[in-house]
Amino acid sequence: MKEYLYDVAIVGxxxxxxxxxxxxxxxxxxxxxxIERDIRAGGILQQCIHAGFGLQYFGEELTGPEYxxxxxxxxxxxxIDLLTETTALEIREKTLVCVNTxxxxxxxxxxxxxxxxxxxRTRANLVIPGSRxxxxxxxxxxxxxxxxYGHKVGKEVVILGSGDIGMIMARRLTLxxxxxxxxxxxxxFLAGLQRNKVQCLDDFGIPLLLSxxxxxxxxxDRVESVTVAPVxxxxxxxxxxxxxxxxxxxxxxxxxxxxxxxxxxxxxxxSGITKGASxxxxxxxxxxxxFACGNVLHVNDLVDNVSRESEKAGKxxxxxxxxxxxxxxxxxxxxxxxxxxxxxxxxxxSADSEVDLFFRTIVPARETTLVATCGGEVLARKKxxxxxxxxxxxxxxxxxxxxxxxxxxxxxxxxxxxxA
Length: 420
Known about the structure:
Elements: E1 2-11, H1 15-26, E2 32-35, E3 51-53, E4 62-63, H2 64-77, E5 81-83, E6 87-92, E7 95-100, E8 103-114, E9 118-120, H3 123-126, E10 136-138, H4 139-147, E11 156-160, H5 164-175, E12 179-185, H6 194-201, E13 208-210, E14 212-219, E15 223-230, E16 243-246, E17 249-252, E18 256-258, H7 261-265, E19 290-292, H8 303-321, E20 330-335, E21 339-343, E22 346-348, E23 355-361, E24 365-374, E25 377-387, E26 393-397, E27 409-418
Parallel strand pairs: 1-2, 1-8, 2-5, 8-19, 10-17, 11-12, 11-17, 12-13, 20-27
Antiparallel strand pairs: 3-4, 6-7, 7-8, 9-18, 14-15, 15-16, 20-22, 21-23, 23-26, 24-25, 24-27
Helix pairs in contact: 1-2, 1-8, 4-5, 5-6
């Protein structure tokens, strides 16, 4: 068995882990390690060959591999260790138990950052009726098969779910010569970003069927068709209005699940909404030496946001490992009317800087007012022309208001016109 000692250990070398590692090193941690189960760093960005990354963080448009490479190069320059083909199995106090081709590896640490990302919901999660032929993929799997391995997944395609990966794959498949017959969405509104609908569906004439779902899959060896039906206000299929769409492929873009199996080994509880751990503004969990960031915490819309959030995790993990992160009184943060969830879930009132609250609204709407309050006092307010559940929103609480927080901080949204 091999044993190592690090100031900060980070599990996952995707965009979150890379940003956290660089930040930890730049904030004083001398020994930093990235643990990655894949053969190289980069995470999901390795297969995202389309442009659109980095507009906020770098001020220019990059592909996924280009974005990842910039952070990987920084990590190399900073002298950060990278253990690839290494799987983290369990968190035992301040020891991370891993396994690789050398056998069992124990990594002792001062602070740990969880940055494992997320995975896609599968057909098993949805329980779609029908036969079990080949030709049913998650959108991310199809993306990897096409972009990494050069494998064409199908010729006539239906996509269930209007998540960003699904819409991006609709365009990708069209460019590869496939016919995308429809993108089917259960909700009466888009699940992903509006810009992806415009660039990936509208620009290619791909139909979007809102308030519809797939109710059956037909085929023996290969998908032959799917049955699509509209749903009522309770999301129940209206079967007498169902339509059979001939196709050989069904892609599923129906949501992401944070990879929190490792998190649970530490004893941390998970949020019923985000399916990730709860953190304060330092990205610190209820176990003081464990930090979490990126999609393992809550699913973000932009990788730029993941990088900034993860830099906080790396910074404060380094401070904790050096004994420089003190804890003060805590204020709970709650999702109020019109808000699905808020992250961070707690605020340490002793902080010497402002606090950013990230959240998603429940419905798409126009002329939305977002507000954070505590005990009747308005802490932050913002008015937006439009909001949608597919986009992350932010309110910032000034540092001078933190010490006086009494009771819960509540984030809420009010709309002049709801669009769903």
